[in-house]
Amino acid sequence: MWKERIIRGDLFNSCVVPFSLKSLNIGLPIFNPMKNTEILTCFQCGTCHASCPSGKYTSLNIRKIVRDSVKKDVSEEPELWMCTTCYNCQERCPRGIKVTDAVLTLRSEAVQKGKILPAHRKVCNFLIKTGQSIPLDDKHLDIRKQLKLRTDLASWNKARKEVKVLLRSTGFDELVKR
Prior knowledge:
Largest sheet: 2 strands, antiparallel
Helix content: 40-55%
Radius of gyration: 18 Å
Structural class: mainly alpha
């Protein structure tokens, strides 16, 4: 399963594509999911915003992102990156609008355009460099030991190489450079 990635073409359909297709230079189109008719069924009830944990502590208003994305490009909006993708909004939407999936697709479009917040770019670069998204400190090493997970350098080096191959093969490293 790690050899596949999900390509979200719109709010209604997803397909799994082997990442080896990238080596064939087949360009996969990115569609703006918020332009679909499904999003037009939103009647602005506010359920998504009320159930959003990020919205309680940040300026994220998922309803505004949804509304604005129908009319304009929201890839420059910092709020787009404040979503934790917890799916609360999507699970509670009375219309069944796939809000979180749409946010993920909008983020993908933003990255394709080279727009990514500096903090996210930093995490991405750390992942490319080390194979981890965050540094492991002593506390987390102890937790790994308690769970009987490997902590030896040899296994990490092997895993790091595998992660780098995966990131390169999917074009992730090139997206982060933009």
